[in-house]
Amino acid sequence: MRLRTLITKEFLDLSRNRAALLPVVLVTIMSLVLPFGIAILVPALTGRGLGEDADLVKVSGVAGIHYDLSADARVQLFLFQQFLMLFLLTPITGAMALAAHAIVGEKQARTLEPLLATPMTTYELLTAKVIGALAPTLAISLAGLVIYFGGILLFAAPGVAASMASARTFALILLVAPAAALVSLQAAILISSRVNDARTAQQFGVLIILPLTGILVAQFTGTIWLSAWTLAILGLGLFALWILLTVLSVALFERESILTRWR
Amino acid sequence: MITASALSRRFGVRTVVKDVTFEVGRGEIVALLGPNGAGKTTTMRMLAGLIAPTSGSVAIEGVQLTRATGSALRSRIGFLTESPGLWDRLTVRENLNIYAGLYGLANAERTIERALETFELRGRGDERTAELSKGTRQKVALARALLHDPIVMLLDEPTSGLDPEVTRSVRQLLEEKRAAGCAILVSTHNLDEAERLADRVAVLQERLLAIDRPQALRQRLTTGRLIVRVSGDPSRYLEAARRSAQGVEVAVDGVALAVRLPDPEQQTPMLVAALVAAGAPIQEVRVEIPALEDVYLHLTQNEQ
């Protein structure tokens, strides 16, 4: 009941401050423009198909051999699969601003003390903050995802859309993306409750994204390729990490310090 | 109902509250006075369970305030913080509605409407709190603190920023709550308010300097001076007064004679008789009792 109330407050507050979601929307749009620009627009403008680039064809081999697809389609499939990961993870960087501001923002607005004087528990407060940042981010990502797959269906070479519907894609969408979002936002909330300035929290928060970006870059260069199973395990590992971070956030949340030492 | 036992709180090496013991009973209002930085807010926060004392304990209705009992006890406490702390982007009604949910109120809508009416906020429920004046924000904060009908109230400067009319209605409300059996602790800088409202006044400056009824506090600091106001020039009756009360200090204080009597009860009738015999047209005879402000300043300045 109290958790639901707190989440309602977060949504109400955000609905009156839609500009706070602008970074998430912009990052989503950019993540949409980039893959279609590279995989569809540039080849169309230059008249040179992606399949003509021997290096790209070679790198795309890590995504598995698709004999039924043309060379162009194979490279497109590789690119769209790679960008899917980027597309699912980058909106989190935008949501970090929301999460990083969560506790320190309440303190600065002096709304935290009356809130802490209620029977509400620390767990309820922190969970509401995570969900408050996560839900709109996932909603925007989902809308972007519909456009992403719609675009592939409309503009990509024949067979690419069908090949995208794989276990790997589902593992990415249903496990890795939400779990990575939960981990990042929970970590940002934890940091937000330990520092006394929103900017510091945000800067620390962005650091959390770095390991994921590393994996992404390694995939693009063909150094590693995360299979559906690897992604599923990664997703579950991230969920476990999120639970650990939640417990840690509650344990490290010091009502006293927040009320008495922060200005 | 509220029991603070030997409460102390240190922040690092600095002691903010030291060995404070007092009680606020059922149906009682206690005003907590003290200069800035005297530890009033820290004491309030300890009583509300927001910060733990370094030593000592707090009990609400006999139940010790601990980490385990904190959540349950907080549902019985109405805490008005120093700053209204409203969510600016939310409306008045939405602010109250969130707190109604946090306190698990069954008839939230009806309770909120009643609170809006009590604090003369009807018609303003749909305004965003960012658009409200300071006084109106304070009213909303008060409505929020009392929304769940708490049995214990801890109010930090409840009438700060309110106009006299609303201040009066807040006082009336607190008197009603007192009559209903609530224990109310009010932190204030307004000595007049403390005197009008409180059953007892506590003066805090790191430690508890005094706690008593306002009248008793004033009497405690009484100078023992008898003020005799006469028509005309009071200096004409100086000699008569000095003859009657030998060896005591007699002086002219404006339009009156001020006589410091060691035993006013015994000596006053004799002094008055002597002055009447000397032809003094006496208009008023009273024992000088200091204002609460004087008591407060005396206590806090002595402490410094």
Briefly, what is this?
In chain A, 79% of the residues lie in helices and 0% in strands.
Helix-strand makeup class of chain A: mainly alpha
Q: Please tell me the total number of domains of chain B.
A: 2
The count of helical stretches of chain A stands at 11
Morphology of chain A: elongated
**CATH domain class of the largest domain in chain B:** Alpha Beta
Cα(first) to Cα(last) distance of chain B is: 32 Å
The largest sheet of chain B, given as strand count, sense and whether it forms a barrel, is:
6 strands, mixed
Strand content of chain B: 25-35%
**Could you estimate the helical fraction of the residues of chain A in percent?**
over 70%
CATH homologous superfamily classification of the largest domain in chain B: P-loop containing nucleotide triphosphate hydrolases
User: Could you give a short account of the major beta sheet of chain A?
Assistant: none
Low-confidence parts of chain A lasting 5 or more residues at pLDDT below 50?
none
What is the ordering of alpha helices and beta strands of chain A? HHHHHHHHHHH
Provide the gyration radius of chain B in Å: 25 Å
The greatest interface here is:
A-B, 28 and 34 residues
Nearest-integer average pLDDT of chain B: 89
- Mean of pLDDT of chain A: 84
Rg over C-alpha atoms of chain A, rounded to the nearest angstrom: 21 Å
For the structure shown, list the relevant keywords:
heterodimer; A: 263 residues; mainly alpha; 11 helices; elongated; B: 304 residues; Rossmann fold; Alpha-Beta Plaits; four-stranded antiparallel β-sheet; 38% helix
Please provide a written account of the structure.
The complex is a heterodimer of chains A (about 260) and B (about 300). With about 260 residues, chain A is mainly alpha-helical. Chain A has eleven helices and no strands. The longest helix of chain A has about 40 residues, at about 70-110. Chain A starts with a helix and ends with a helix. In chain B, strands 6-7-8-3-9-10 form a six-stranded mixed β-sheet, sandwiched between helices. A four-stranded antiparallel β-sheet of chain B has the order 2-1-4-5, covered by helices on one side. Chain B has a four-stranded antiparallel β-sheet with strand order 12-13-11-14, covered by helices on one side. Chain B has about 300 residues and is of the alpha/beta class. The two termini of chain B are about 30 Å apart. In chain B, α6 links the parallel β7 (about 150-155) and β8 (about 185). In chain B, α3 (about 90-100) crosses α4, α4 packs across α5 and α9 packs across α10 (about 265-275). The interface of A and B includes residues 6, 110, 114, 115 and 117 of A.
